[in-house]
Each structure stands twice: as C-alpha cells, then as structure tokens.
What does this fold into?
Amino acid sequence: MGEGLADHRPEFEASGREWRTPPLWGVGYNRRVTGREHYLHDGRARTIEEAVLWHGGEAEAARQGFTSLTSPERTALILFLDSL
Ligand code: HEM
It folds into this structure.
C-alpha cells in the first residue's frame, strides 16, 4: 500500500510494503470486544479515521476521497464502518 505503511519486512511472497487487505466486516467489534482500538497490520492507528488516513499507494484515491468529505459525511462513514 505504498511507503507510508511500509515496515520493510518481507514475508513469504509479500514484500515489506505489501499487506493483505483485511475484510472490514466486523471492524467495529475491535473496540466493543477489547475495549481498545488498534487498526492496521501493526496496530498503529487508534481510530478508524486514522486507519483511513494512513492509506496510500493503490489506496491513495480512497484517502483523498475521505479527506474531501464534509464533516457530517465523514461521521456517517465512520458510524457505518463501526456498525459492520
Ligand atoms: C473508502 C474506502 C476505504 C475505507 C473506508 C478503508 C478502510 C480501512 C480500514 C478501517 C482499515 C483497517 C482495518 C483493520 O485494521 O482491521 C483498512 C485497511 C487496509 N486497507 Fe482500506 N479502506 C478503503 C479503501 C482501500 C483501498 C482502495 C485499498 C487498496 C487498493 C485498501 C487497502 C487496505 C489495506 C492493504 C489495508 C491493511 C493495511 C495494514 O494492515 O496495514 N483500502 N482499510
């Protein structure tokens, strides 16, 4: 997903800047079940919003789309993701 998230640790066929794209189904349970929040492969994002803002590379357009949303639209998207 680009340099932003790169940990430069290759694993099998994945280079240090490639990750499995996780299913977002159930992403809201992270907080509800553990009482804590950490997202992305190394847990660096403490909120869903932070996780989206870390996107880059092939997902750069998604990050830009997110940053051009209005505040109520962003809130609606976060609430939607949290409900999955
Ligand atoms: C509106 C569009 C998108 C939203 C809201 C979104 C949201 C998210 C969230 C919340 C996570 C963290 C999941 C977790 O930690 O369990 C995530 C991870 C990820 N997303 Fe997206 N995403 C979007 C688009 C994309 C696109 C277009 C791509 C690739 C082309 C992509 C690739 C990834 C990858 C590879 C990860 C895992 C990164 C890591 O573990 O470090 N995402 N996404």
Summary: The mean pLDDT is 88. Helices lie at 29-34, 48-53, 60-67, 71-82. Residues 3-82 form one domain.
